[in-house]
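Database export, one record per block. Field names are fixed; values are copied verbatim from the stored entry.
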Amino acid sequence: MSPGSVTEILYFFIAEYTADMKTSEGGGAEDEEENIEVLELPVDDAMRMISDGRIRDAKNDYAAPACPVT
C-alpha cells in the first residue's frame, strides 16, 4: 500500500455544465507534473462501469452515491 493511499485528501466536484462553459480540457498543473486524466461520460455508463469492474477504485465508489440515478 502506498503512503498516499491513506494520507491523501480527495475532493469531488460534481456539477452539470455545457460545452460553452469549458475554459480548457482540464488535467492538472503541468509544472507540478500532475498527470490527471479527465474522462467525461454519462452517469448511467459510469455506474455500469463501476458495477462490472471496468472502474475499480475506491474514490469512484465514494463519489457514485452523489450521482443522480436515472
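Remark 1: Residues 43-51 form the longest helix (9 residues).
Remark 2: The chain has a mean pLDDT of 75.
End of record.
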